[in-house]
Amino acid sequence: MSSLIRRFGTVEYFMMVSFYLVGMLAPFAAALSFAVVLAGVLCLYEFFLYDADEKAAAPVRSRIYLGSVLLLVLLGVGGLVAIATNAVSQMTVLGLIGIFGAFPAFVQYLFHRQIDAETGPLARRVSDRWS
């Protein structure tokens, strides 16, 4: 590092590092958007595992949960499209994922509190299979 600073100077070195890091944001944002799409599809599958009684016990929160999951899927797909077409900056995609990424988990927590459930139906199925 010190030889690079001596060769290029401090400002040029930090500009090279910053250009390298900015160049790495696009693959990271694309991978994160893809992971968000997969998580949204998994949450959507779990939503349809809730039985009618659980959805009827908290109809508003179950609909809000479904909407937040659909928002998560659309956010991931939109992030992939935005990165592929270079429509918006990668920081915008990462910021939106950071802001809205945890919203379905929070809504599901409130939904579980209202129906007095410890875990979701997908977690119950997995624990039943592995025990």
From TrEMBL:
Protein name per its UniProtKB record: Na+/H+ antiporter
Keywords of this entry: Membrane, Transmembrane, Transmembrane helix
Transmembrane helix found in the keyword field: yes
Residues that span the membrane, as ranges: 20-44, 64-85, 91-111
Lineage top rank: taxon: Archaea
